[in-house]
Design brief:
The chain has 232 residues and is α+β, with helices and mostly antiparallel strands. The strands form three sheets. Strands 2-6-4-5 form a four-stranded antiparallel β-sheet. A three-stranded antiparallel β-sheet has the order 1-7-3. It has a three-stranded antiparallel β-sheet with strand order 8-10-9. Strand 4 and strand 5 form a beta hairpin. Helix 4 packs antiparallel against helix 9.
């Protein structure tokens, strides 16, 4: 079954037909920065098999992840929702893969004139805000092992694969903990036959056990996305 972006699929059929000539398939390499703080957004990206981290870098140089974008989301939505520039956030490819790129202007025109499309994108924005809010609570209230499990599950769902091409160093940076802590958690999960790791890759072996190890944030957020966008 071909990979698809679920948000792009949710657009009204007539809108999708009109914007299809503007869609361009491309592959995104790990580390590619799609938007930097202050950049004017000229293009939007609908991930298919890649995963994008939304990060904020503080004055001292430390970076934290505030959200993830995969095959049920889009990068660059503020281009046609009241602002054409990024704010303090940076969008960087963390798991390489394929995406669909489109210039902002054709989508902006459809957003301005098509009520049904506008409703879809506003519901998506609500879902994405729920993700950011849930992340803030999760980072404050839940232990690292739970957040580690949740992150793997979120990544799995967004690329539709149990094979995650990422390093433990990256996971530590995104979760805001030392790499040694990630190594310890990964070793415990591997001993429990939940995941399997090798250099640069983490494989989910038992998704049910991983969900049991995660905090409630994973299920809460998945239900919210499904409710708002009909994502299954």
């Amino acid at each position: 079954m071909p990979k698809e972006n679920l948000l792009l699929r949710a657009l009204p059929a007539d809108v999708l037909e009109r914007v299809t000539p503007h869609l361009k398939a491309l592959s995104l390499a790990r580390g590619k920065v799609l938007h930097r703080p202050g950049d004017t957004i000229h293009d939007l990206y609908f991930p298919l098999t890649c995963l994008i981290s939304v990060t904020v870098t503080m004055g001292g140089g430390k970076t934290a992840e505030t959200g993830v974008i995969g095959n049920r989301e889009v990068v660059g939505i503020n281009a046609f929702m009241g602002g054409r520039e990024t704010t303090q956030t940076e969008y960087v490819v963390q798991i390489p893969g394929d995406a669909i790129r489109i210039a902002a202007e054709p989508l902006r025109e459809e957003f301005d004139r098509n009520t049904e499309m506008r409703n879809v994108m506003l519901k998506y924005t609500q879902a994405y805000l729920a993700q950011i809010s849930q992340n803030a609570a999760c980072n404050r209230l839940h232990i690292t092992s739970q957040r580690f499990a949740r992150w793997l599950l979120e990544a799995r769902d967004r690329i539709e694969s149990d094979q995650l091409v990422l390093t433990q160093e990256f996971l530590g940076e995104m979760l805001g903990v030392r790499r040694a802590s990630i190594n310890q958690i990964a070793s415990e999960y591997e001993a429990g036959n939940i995941i399997k790791t090798r250099r640069g890759q983490t494989s989910i072996v038992d998704g049910e056990k991983l969900e049991a190890a995660s905090c409630e944030c994973y299920a809460v957020l998945k239900e919210e996305y499904d409710r708002l966008l009909g994502v299954k």
